[in-house]
Amino acid sequence: MLAQFSTYLYRRPRLALALLLGPPLLWLGVAYLGALAALLVQSFFSLDHFTGQVVHRLTLATYGDLFTRANLDIVLRTAGMAAAVTLAAAVLAFPLAYYMTFRATPRARGWLYLAIVLPLWSSYLVRVYAWKLLLSKEGILSWLAAHTGTGGLLEHWLALPLVGGPSLSISTTGIFLAFLYVWLPYMILPIQAALERVPRSLLEASGDLGAPPRATFLHVTLPLVFPGVVAGSIFTFSLTLGDFIVPSVLGNSSYFIGQAVLAHQGTSGNIPLAAAFTVVPMTIMGLYLLLARKTGAFDAL
Amino acid sequence: MRSDGKRRRASVGLALASGAVLLFLHGPIGIILLYAFTTDDSSYTFPPPGLTTRWFGVAWQRADLWQALELSVRVAGMATLVALALGTLAAAAVWRSRFFGRDAVSFLLVLPIALPGIVTGIALRSAIGLAEIPFSFWTIVIGHATFCVVVVYNNALTRFRRTGSSLLEASMDLGANSFQTFRYVLLPNLASALLAGGMLAFALSFDEVIVTTFTAGQQETLPLWIFSQLTRPRDRPVTNVVAVFVIAVTFVPIFLAHRLTRSKGDTGSSA
Questions:
Q1: Model-level ipTM above the cut of 0.90
Q2: Which of A205, A267, B149, B262 has the smallest C-beta neighbourhood within 10 Å, fewest atoms?
Q3: CB–CB of B269 and A189 under 8 A?
Q4: Low-confidence spans in chain B with pLDDT less than 50
């Protein structure tokens, strides 16, 4: 019976393919894409502010609400944070990735790889929690600042607009540090993979032709690794755009996009506006991916 | 010789910078370990005023924690099973045939983790709402399985590609039908990749909070419990213990998954 069925399938590769592909496509193509489409449609509905009911008529009014001053601030704040985190992650990721590729012994490289993958896969929430401990007023960073005589400096920093806040654990700086911490491994891995693919012969050739190490790095290594940096930035940027955990744990009442979505769909029941808000990170990421594709970042993933 | 000295100094600088980045990556986890033993129960004082192991006992007694843990394990287990089935099927399809839209399939599978979590979360929530499905264990599983599939898919596809088709052809030539070939040739080859993918999927689901926020009605998974403690701390010492527990629980499968795939020469990560 089974053997006959097997032969039957062998003669009809299309049917076999459909049987293989059917379940995953049904799940993701229908359930998931369907849900995304439903979300998109909802963003063209609007909320009747009198009754609090969603009006099922297509309109652009909700997108109009999106472009109010307060909501634009939320978008800018989130995008600015994502850009800052991405830049800082690239700067921090480079030395470690470089060391791993060019200096470490193969054995050490294996361990370093594990040291980067472990935080990547281990509990995101607990790692955010660690920053609540580190940043709190009576926590280790304040303690370090007090014992190294930089307490005053910290006060000044926190008093600054934009980056400051009432204390480290409720400040933009705190949010930035936590984001940087949780997404850093996503930047290290693609950069390391890109460095791995740099042909050693090119580096030797550059040296033989008289370039000092600095010049080789700037003119040979860096351009070759750039797609890897862009690949990493896709993760750090996208993950920061959509996160609501870090800003709600370490932030004050100035919302990030994720918090706005959560608030609009939850407490105020304004699903259309929440849906319109999610279109913002999707649009930003869409444009970002188009740009990234030009640099060849997808081959570096 | 001058340039040699310079190079050595550059190397030392590089090693120091790398060390600092490693410290940045792992120091905070050490801090969590330390705080699980602090005697301080109302703030996050550093250095801890004293050390104790009593919070582990206190956490052990908490019924709400056990319930949350049980739900998380059940959800992660079920989501992993679904992801294993769907991910392997998709990988097999992409590997053995060329068809129109093959790249689109890979893209579709990555989409749930490539898009920000809130997008996946709210999309599923509004779909669940529109379909008038009540929130339950299953709605959480649906959300988790959706983004776990890609992990299994990537691991399985890498292994399929390395297995090559000659083994399968040999098996078929020797008279085995496709099911026998799958059972006796393909599956043993695939097993460790599936185990690794499954463990990563489990770790991913066990820890997920963003999508879960949208797809869990009144139910509380362990991450949701921790998240509620993060925004409104009520049981700080217990939270510290739970944090250590979660780190320990997720480290084991990741470490094992890494070993399983690494020892044969490919990477365990696929995000």
A1: no
A2: A267
A3: yes
A4: 1-2, 264-271
